[in-house]
Design goal:
alpha/beta, Rossmann fold, 6-stranded parallel sheet, 6 helices, 9 strands
């Protein structure tokens, strides 16, 4: 399924457009179902989005007591570690939001056992979401075409019978936990953020099919699917 491309002139305007889109999506989900389930991404562009959402006018436009925050992937480090996606999101947004602590569902990575973390997080998803799909999954795009922690040539790509997967990423010497394709694809909406000139080559390769089989190309969202890009990323 091809993504609808939203190309903004620069990263600040991309973040502004994404914040407006996030708020509209959250308000629609809350109006329809009384809750908004969202999976957050790591990375610099999502961080910019979180910082914007934590300020006026956006912070006042969402009933944060009805938002359930999850994470699309995480490194197996303590929640206080600088590599933690949770720490980034907490400092950028969560600490500033009027959101109940019990509505924030981080991956319990402090144990360091990725397989155990994956099992525990899958149980959390089942308990809190009760079989509902995510209303929104936010993703970044790596220069190797990875999304969440679905990296090329890792076993996690083939997991279709679990909500989460654990994996070791050789080039980063890093244990990770990630949502799997079935969970992401079932979401009502998926957004990939792509910003900066450093992403122009991978965007070109994906959109021209110059390269095949990248993790992002294996996405098949059943709901709405968007790429939010700035002109630098879309330049080629």
């Amino acid at each position: 399924m091809k993504a609808e491309q939203k190309i903004l002139p620069d990263t600040p305007r991309l973040i502004e457009a994404a914040a407006e889109h996030f708020v509209a999506t959250a308000r629609a989900a809350i109006a329809k179902r009384g809750v908004f389930h969202v999976a957050l991404a790591g990375g610099s562009t999502p961080k910019g989005l979180y910082e914007r959402l934590a300020k006026s006018p956006y912070i006042e436009q969402v009933d944060w007591t009805r938002v359930q925050l999850f994470f699309g992937d995480e490194r197996c480090v303590p929640a206080t570690h600088d590599d933690s996606n949770f720490k980034m999101a907490r400092l950028a947004m969560i600490d500033l939001l009027p959101i109940p602590p019990e509505n924030v569902h981080r991956m319990p990575t402090e144990s360091g056992d990725a397989a155990e973390v994956a099992v525990r997080y899958a149980e959390t998803l089942k308990t809190v979401m009760a079989g509902q799909p995510f209303d929104l999954v936010l993703l970044g795009l790596g220069p190797d075409g990875h999304i969440a922690s679905l990296f090329p040539e890792t076993p996690a790509l083939e997991v279709t019978d679990q909500l989460t997967a654990s994996l070791f990423v050789e080039k980063f010497q890093s244990w990770r936990v990630t949502l799997t394709y079935p969970v992401i694809n079932a979401a009502r909406q998926v957004i990939i953020f792509i910003a900066g000139e450093s992403k122009a080559d991978i965007v070109r390769d994906i959109t021209t099919d110059a390269v095949q089989g990248l993790p992002v190309q294996r996405l098949a969202p059943q709901g709405d699917y968007f790429w939010f890009m700035d002109e630098a990323a879309a330049g080629k």
